[in-house]
Amino acid sequence: MTFHLGRRALLAAAAAFTLTGSAMADGHKVADSIHFLIPGGAGGGWDGTARGTGEALTKAGLVGTASYENMSGGGGGKAIGYLIENADSNHGTLMVNSTPIVIRSLTGVFPHNFRDLTLVSGTIGDYAALVVGKDSPLNSMDDLMAAYDADPSSTAIGGGSVPGGMDHLVAAMVMEAAGKDALNVKYIPYDAGGKAMAALLSGEIKALSTGFSEAVALAQAGEVKILGVTSDARVDAYGDAPTMMEQGIDTTFVNWRGFFAAPGLPEDKLAMYQDAIAKMYDTPQWEEVRARNGWVNIHNSGDDFRSFLEDQEKVIGDLMKKLGFL
């Protein structure tokens, strides 16, 4: 099975940035402050994206101060519900999100979808990867497939998302593309990336499905080996990581990440958030954060962002039906 989400799929959703203050004529400081709402725990991709964006915006002088709030629960639904129910008091908040807001709405994990929020802008793309612990006997995707063929029930793959969530979907796509029945893959969900990592190191799971930027950080720390990444070509941030494609597994995937704001956000504040993010791309502070994490720049806001999300909703919905998740 071939599954490709092209560069448009990198376009990120808008984060619920709380930017207050007026843009300055010199083009530097755009907002006094932003409060980032993170729908998952520490150590995950949402956490890294929000904190990296806040770091770049503040160090570049585009935003005065940034604050962060982790609100796990309901596969991200708790934070979305909170932002909608407390919209009037959260005009200074940007919520980070990504492909799961599409997946989990399709599967009914939570009742809301991206249309219930104010779309700010997509910011980056992050490939996915399968990794194993540093002491694992597995050194390639061929090794993982051989282990799976020998004993499927003891070859569990874990991830930091709910069953039918993105980490599960990526693992299923990869296994399906490798000629396996995705419905037979044993997937074990964990509430956050950090917990999933602990399960990998303890041997509770054979491999971990995670974002490439998280995999790079773990590999550089000497904790994991990257078996495969879902990019078209090797990524400069960690050139030692082989692609799925070069190992004969015909699948690519990139997870967009971006920011949403509360529904009913005043137009001037929305424009301010979008202006701050647009200016961020031209700063060395952002390039440092981007390169460090192996992200791909994808900037999309306004109607373009909405069109992208609607397209992705159809592509992923069709895929999930094919794999039996819907």
TrEMBL record:
Keyword Signal: yes
Coiled coil: none
Lineage top rank: taxon: Bacteria
Protein's UniProt keywords contain DNA-binding: no
Signal peptide: 1-25
Classification via InterPro entries: BUG, Bug_dom1
Gene3D superfamilies: Bordetella uptake gene, domain 1, Periplasmic binding protein-like II
Keywords: Signal
Pfam families (alphabetical): TctC (PF03401)
PANTHER family tied to this protein: TRICARBOXYLATE-BINDING PROTEIN (PTHR42928), UPF0065 PROTEIN YFLP (PTHR42928:SF3)
Family affiliation: Belongs to the UPF0065 (bug) family.
Protein name: Putative tricarboxylic transport membrane protein
Lineage: Bacteria, Pseudomonadati, Pseudomonadota, Alphaproteobacteria, Rhodobacterales
